[in-house]
Design a protein that fits this description.
Blueprint: H1 12-23, E1 49-52, E2 55-60, E3 63-66, H2 71-76, H3 94-101, H4 105-118, H5 121-149, E4 154-156, E5 162-164, H6 171-187
Antiparallel strand pairs: 1-2, 2-3, 4-5
Helix pairs in contact: 5-6
């Protein structure tokens, strides 16, 4: 009989909890909790970038995301579903169209058809063509500046021989050539 004797002493909170259960007050507290809840939660909006606990965060498409070095890869990766029509992107050209336009081939076809119906297709084609020429001009200028600022006076041939060239670049003639090329590219615009 001595084995059945309760050797543990009840604490006040245990007694309070049992009383609440007997009275049917299952949700009532038997202890009072106080303390520091931590930092206040900041409200962030779409596109905000902030740092929290040593990590950089942002909100994209309503979702809190960690900003990493691989964000450029996230943009290059093709999703499983088209973000516009929510269909599976399993056709052969869907990945190419997604990388160029951000939608699948079917959605792009619908978009271009709507442009043709609305009469804005020719303007769109012209803008796209002119933007491509402007991009080529900027790349050409960058390449040209790189060549002019290059201080190397030796080059390695296809056979691995080091060749030293003397004379340099005639900068006035090179600038004239650059201006002619830019003028020609601008003449191609519609």
């Amino acid at each position: 009989m001595s084995d059945n004797v309760l050797k543990k002493e009840f604490q006040k909170r245990d007694v309070e909890r049992l009383r609440n259960l007997v009275k049917g007050k299952h949700g009532d507290r038997s202890t009072v909790g106080i303390g520091y809840n931590g930092e206040t939660q900041e409200d962030h909006k779409e596109g905000d970038v902030w740092e929290e606990r040593g990590k950089t965060w942002t909100i994209r498409d309503g979702i809190k995301e960690n900003v990493t070095k691989l964000d450029s890869f996230k943009k290059a990766a093709v999703p499983l579903f088209c973000p516009k029509c929510k269909q599976v992107m399993d056709k052969q050209l869907d990945s190419f169209y997604f990388k160029s336009y951000g939608e699948c081939l079917d959605c792009r076809t619908v978009t271009e058809t709507q442009m043709k119906i609305a009469g804005t297709w020719d303007d769109y084609r012209t803008e796209t063509f002119n933007a491509e020429i402007d991009k080529q001009i900027e790349e050409y200028k960058g390449w040209f500046e790189n060549i002019l600022n290059d201080k190397a006076n030796s080059f390695i041939s296809e056979h691995g021989e080091v060749q030293k060239w003397v004379g340099g670049i005639d900068k006035e003639r090179a600038q004239q050539s650059l201006d002619e090329v830019i003028e020609y590219l601008n003449s191609l615009k519609k």
